[in-house]
């Protein structure tokens, strides 16, 4: 039986160290981590890797259930996939495990709370943006792509697929930037 830890934060500027330390202290021999949103399972390669490696009797350990996901359906599906592999899910805070029936009930409730919390965060964010727009202080989110570099590469004769590889985005994003011009 292996204890496999999974740590996640939503943004690049957040720190994983506290989660990693807790998982290692809890006896997780393997700990996988990533910096990606928990709103869905899209783009969560480390989580997919953990699920692929689970064997009967293994235990997936997370510090809090919202680290596993912020959507109730996703969380329940993840727990179901672990059970299909005859593995368990354990949350450290509060300490809950799928080894018993009560654990399933608590996990479902915690999943619902995580989803509700995500909705509250989005609502507060929306309110803050509206307030900033009203005050004339809103400048929009940070641009993730170097638009000038994309345009320069295109002007130099580089194709959209090659540009996408170079700057680390999709071809569709390259096309959108090029259409802005």
Automatic annotation (TrEMBL):
Belongs to the site-specific recombinase resolvase family. SUPFAM superfamilies: Homeodomain-like, Resolvase-like. Pfam families: HTH_7, Resolvase. Residues 2-136 form the Resolvase/invertase-type recombinase catalytic domain. It comes from Lichenibacterium ramalinae. Keywords: DNA integration, DNA recombination, DNA-binding. It comes from the Bacteria. InterPro entries: Homeodomain-like_sf, Recombinase_CS, Resolv_N, Resolvase-like_N_sf, Resolvase_HTH_dom, SSR_resolvase. The keyword DNA-binding applies. The active site is at residue 10. This is Recombinase family protein. SMART domains: Resolvase (SM00857). GO terms for biological process: DNA integration. One of its GO terms (molecular function) is DNA strand exchange activity.
């Amino acid at each position: 039986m292996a204890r496999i830890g999974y740590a996640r934060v939503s943004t690049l500027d957040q720190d994983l160290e506290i989660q990693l330390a807790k998982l290692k202290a809890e006896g997780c021999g393997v700990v996988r981590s990533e910096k990606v949103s928990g709103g869905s399972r899209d783009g969560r390669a480390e989580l997919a890797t953990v699920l692929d490696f689970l064997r009967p009797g293994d235990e997936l350990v997370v510090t809090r259930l919202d680290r596993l996901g912020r959507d109730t359906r996703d969380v329940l599906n993840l727990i179901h996939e672990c059970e299909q592999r005859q593995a368990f899910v354990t949350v450290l805070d509060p300490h809950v495990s799928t080894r018993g029936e009560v654990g399933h009930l608590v996990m479902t409730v915690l999943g619902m709370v995580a989803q509700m919390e995500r909705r509250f965060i989005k609502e507060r964010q929306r309110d803050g943006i509206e307030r900033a727009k009203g005050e004339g202080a809103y400048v929009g989110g940070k641009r993730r792509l170097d638009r000038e570099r994309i345009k320069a590469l295109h002007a130099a004769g580089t194709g959209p697929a090659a540009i996408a590889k170079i700057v680390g985005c999709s071809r569709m994003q390259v096309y959108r930037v090029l259409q802005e011009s």
